Known about the structure:
The chain has helices spanning 2-29, 45-113, 167-174, 234-238, 263-267, 303-312, and strands spanning 118-121, 125-132, 139-146, 152-156, 178-181, 185-188, 191-194, 199-200, 203-204, 216-221, 226-229, 242-248, 251-254, 257-258, 274-279, 285-290, 317-320, 329-331, 334-335, 349-353.
Amino acid sequence: MNLEMKQINRFFLLATAPFLGLFLFLLFSFKPVHVEVDTAAYVPDVTLKDRTAILKQDLDKADQSVKVTISSIRKTSALYKQTTTTMNSIVTNAKTQAVRPEYLYNRRITAKLGVPFERVESDRIRIELYKVNPGVYKGYAMKVKLKDPAAMQMTLGRDNIGSSETTMQAVSRHGAVAGINAGGFADNGGKRYPLSTTVMNGEYLTGFESSFKDLFFVGMDNSGKLIGGKFSNKTELDNLKPKFGATFVPVLLKNGQPMPIPEKWQVSPKRAPRTVIGNYKDDQLLIIVVDGYSESGSSGATLQELQNKMYGLGIKDAYNLDGGGSSSLIVNGRVVNNPSDGSLRPVPTHFLFYK
């Protein structure tokens, strides 16, 4: 038995010896494994919560800042709108105040004329027609406000020197809303020529002629203002930059003062149909056309009467245009006055007004 047991023990010892040796080798030859943990990279739960709380506080502050900014923008916008409204109101009031003197002046001069019986209004021109009847003559006054300088032009009879046409023909041919006869003329060889210096479209029709005797030039400059007077040389007239104009006799008012009427024109004829043109200090025009049944001197108005009339109406400068049978006033396609010839007389120049 003991022998068998010894043999068995020896067998097991031999069988397990290699494994036991390997175990002892492994046990004494390997070093222990050391694992290090980066504590800096590790954030405890408490720190994460704190950071979350801080982030929440920052977001709350940002939200509050946004709300304050939005409120500030709204207040600024409201203030801007209020300021804009105030400025617009100031501008509107300023414009109203700026035109008020013109409005008051216009009311004052219109009050002297009475109530217009006809009116033409556009963005280019305003025309008002009045009756003139002081008891010794009858006629019509036409007050014109040129909003556009080009709303008034001068035309030549049939666009040819020596030709003539009635004011109605000129108005119709050029599509004007109103028209009057302009300067004087001289007949020669069956043709009718404008007197002396005549300007069309800024050009001298037959050259410049120095004013002599009682002749004067009257017309408009490039800005739509009435110009006129006696000119001894071309430079004097050129300085006024005439756009168009014609010649006749005599000057009635200059700078608001009556001018001496030559004796010849006081009696030749004494009374007659007349056409006169003048301007107010605000550059509105006033045209008076007086009726008469002939050129014999027994009907119509004297130049002295028209001079006094224009002066009393506050006219600054006034000029007598061709009269007698030449006097004509056309508005809205009809003859307003009563031509002394019984019909309109063909003349070489006309002042036309455009709507």
